[in-house]
Amino acid sequence: MSHSSPTTAHAPVGLGSRHDLDVSERHRKRAETLVSFALELGASVELEDLANKFSARAMETLEARATFMALIRGSRPQTIAMRGISAELEQQAAKHLNRALETFFPRQSLKAIAIPGEQFDPQLARELAWEEVILVPLFGGGNQLLAVLGLADCRRHSDSDIELVQAMATHAAAALQNSQLFARITRSSRQWAEMFDSISDFMLLHDEHQRVLRVNRSLSEKLNKQPSQLLGLLVRDLFVPSSNLPACPFCIDLRGQEFREEFRDPKTGSVYLVSSSHLRGGSEEAQQIVHVLKDVSASRHAERLYRELFDNIQEGAYFSAPDGRLLEVNDALVRMLGYDSREELLSVKAHDLYVEPAHREIVTRALNQFGRLRNHELALLRRDRSIIYVLENSFVIRNETGQVVEYRGVLLDITEIKHVQSQLLREHDFNTQILNHTQSLIAVVDTAGLVSYANRRCCEVATGGEGDLVGSRLETIISSSHRPVFRRALECVLDGKAVNNLELPLARGNQSIGSFSVNLSPMKVPSGEVNSLVAVMTDITDVAMLQAKLMHTEKMAAVGQLVSGVAHEVNNPLTAIMGFADLLLENPELPSDVREDLQVIVQEAHRTREIVQNLLSFARQTTPEKQPVDVNQVLRRTISLRAYDMGSHGIELTEEFDSKLPEIIGDAHQLQQVFLNILNNACDAVREASRRGRISIVTMQVAESLEVRFRDNGPGITNADRIFDPFYTTKEVGKGTGLGLSICYGIVREHNGEIICFNNPDSQGATFAIRLPLMRAAAVKAMTASAS
To answer: What are the DSSP calls for 172-225, one per residue?
Structure first.
């Protein structure tokens, strides 16, 4: 049997002991590391400081190239610490790390995991050259994931090293949880203190002996003292120290736990709404009371003012429920609707106040849809069932869910206004009817000359009844030749002066309307400035024509007097000339040549006497003998005198006599003179034309007059306004005296008739029209009786 050497025999034992010593040493170092790490974390309270320290120690332990730590906030990671990453890449790297951590770290994993860098985040792996990333979770109580530690490219990543980091993570998680709890407590305490001080209402805390423990900032500023100066004082000393007040004026009976709900400061008169509650101390006996004082002085003042306003406004105000119940009304509405009291009106349903109950539904739907009504006109029933018209402004009150809980509105009584408006409308319509039915043309013109109003007659005359004159210039209806005069008149009126009786011709396009008398008056504003003018235009066309005829009649009368005197003066020498010429012709011894000369003298003297006779006839020195006359018969006798002459000159004569034409009262010989004179002029006129002459004579009855018309196809009349003037003639010298038509004019006027002339519309010839009044039945009877 062999014996082994002592060295050989004890070798395994030595190796085992050395291994145990190494393990023990590692455990000791690990324990020291964990203890020193725990002590180091114990001094850290802030989250970022704790994260930086844990990241640095883990990076040192595993000899990593880079490290990062992310907190789990809610369900998303947020990186708060990074090492080994350049500053310019930190912001971009944080986004990639947050996204990668959310994807690759399962919440249920309790151990560290290693992930290839390219799989963890390809972009980070390329930019930072990471090959492997080790993720270490930090769990709190109840396996709640608090944070994740990441280590990139660790040179030491044995199981023992990773277990050490995992153990460090356990300590870090506890410290992290404590830090979060401490932060929440600190934040909660700070928030409570800030909230206590930030409340605008007054707050104070006192003990069971009514001594102040704490006041908020609002109350200390109100008392103009520091909070520390108020501690320990009795609550009543904060306001007005007085034996009349209890130690705490807000506590009525502390033992009965009854508190005052409202307090009026006897010094300032301010009203406070008091809210109180108990706070328990460390023992059952120790109590603290907190009072919250809300200054409602302004609201109570506003409430009083609102109530006074609500009760004293002249408009009726109401609050009503959706079902139609009146919740509140003011005195004005009670008076407006004729009720005796509020209570009586509040007992009436809102829809019973409407003249048309269906109108209530319309108003309600409109309020529900639009939320408010503006200036809505309503007809309501008073208590005596009379109708009152109001203007409503109302709106809707809704609760938090949007449901309608109340209607509020104000009613303005416009009954009197409605009556006034109706009266004004009637007066306006009446005035408009007057303006539109007057024969005068009335227009209102602004300072620019534009028409702002024109009555119906003005529009009819100016536009021919086919348009409106408003907006156009008034001068457009003035004849172009007189527009400068009208403009000067406008300038005068704009200076504040009136222009009256301005005679202007009006025109519609190229068509003349007539002569009008224009009166222009300025319209002024209260300051005295002219803002418009009124033009009143009266048609004086007929008046002008009558005035012209009157002037012509006066002129004819003057000429007649002149002619009468001249005729008598000429007759005396003319009679002597004719007498002595006749005596000389009776002498048989006169030479033949002298006799011929005397015959010429006698002939011209007779011609002169005829002219004088015409002058005397024109002067109408004798009254014509009037009797019933058949005008058709007189015309036929006149035509027979000229028939042969007209036939020899190829003049065509047509007769259109009314066979039922009644007789007139007149002098047949004078009328024959008129007809013959006009017929002679017509014959002379058609002989001047280059065409075959045609003359037509027409008789007709027009209303109460008899009308005779002589129409020819001659060259027409050049000066129709002078055709009846004495001594005016268009014939050659020696062929006319210019007295024929003047004599005709005088004869027709003596018969109370009218004679006019005008050129024919077809521009061929002229027409003379003679109108003579018909004989009345009474005149016929009188003349018949006198004849018998």
So the answer is: HHHHHHHHHHHHHHHHHHHHHHHHHHH-SSEEEEEETTSBEEEE-HHHHHHHTS
- The secondary element (H helix, E strand) that includes residue 79 is strand 76-83
How far apart, in whole angstroms, are the C-alpha atoms of residue 673 and residue 365? 92
Q: What rounded mean pLDDT belongs to the chain?
A: 78
Mean pLDDT value across residues 353-370: 85
209 has a pLDDT exceeding 70: yes
- φ/ψ of residue 591, rounded to 5: -60, 160
Number of alpha carbons in the 13 Å side-chain half-sphere of residue 298:
2
Question: Helix axis angle, 668-688 relative to 631-648, nearest 10°?
Answer: 30
Q: How many helices (H) and strands (E) does the chain have?
A: 21, 29
pLDDT at res. 362 = 84
Please tell me the distance from the alpha carbon of residue 702 to that of residue 692, in angstroms, as a whole number. 31
CA distance linking residue 223 with residue 219, whole number of Å? 6
Contact 455, 435 (CB under 8 A): yes
Tell me if residue 262 falls in helix, strand or coil: strand
Judged against a pLDDT cut of 60, whether residue 138 lies above it is answered with yes
Tokens at residue 640, please? 């027979």
Mean of pLDDT values over 75-92: 84
d(CA 111, CA 229): 58
B/e letters for 228-239, b = 16+ CB within 10 Å, e = fewer, are eebeebbbbbbb
Please give the Cα distance from 602 to 604 (Å, whole number).
6
Query: Which segment of 274-283, 616-625, 757-766 scores lowest on mean pLDDT?
Result: 616-625
Q: What is the CA radius of gyration of the chain?
A: 64
Distance CA 740, CA 618 (A): 9
Give the confidence band of 700 by pLDDT, cuts at 50, 70, 90: very high
